[in-house]
Design goal:
Elements lengths: L5 E6 L2 H11 L3 E5 L3 E6 L2 E7 L9 E4 L2 E4 L3 E4 L2 H15 L4 E5 L7 E7 L5 E7 L9
Parallel strand pairs: 1-4, 7-10
Antiparallel strand pairs: 2-3, 3-4, 5-6, 8-9, 9-10
Length: 137
Amino acid sequence: MNPVFHMSLPCLNLQETIKFYTDELGFQVGRKTKKWVDINLFNNQITFVLVNQFNLGFPDYQFEQHTLPTFHFGVIVNSDMWEEMYDRVNYWLSDHSIKKTFLKDQHGEHVSFFIKDPNGYTLEFKTFIEEDDMFMM
């Protein structure tokens, strides 16, 4: 088995969360109960656990001229998959995605888009211009 990550996050509404990740983003549901659901995010497991409330009130930070949420998660994909996801997201959520280029003409140049899920989490989909630059500065 190749290493994969697992992340567990609180959510306010399981049905809205499932609909967003399956219908709108195209991911599959794994195991689920009345209180939690596993989502297959590119063969990584994100578990959403039903809670009454939680707080994402963390400060934003500056990267280049962009303001980004301190708390966010995402996935790095190749450029073809990135375009496919960007097109899919813009079909469903055209007014909610934000596309940005970072480190233009530098090592680590990448393009990202950001969307919010029904729980207020910011997801980042990222592709590097040069894949070898992912951990290089």
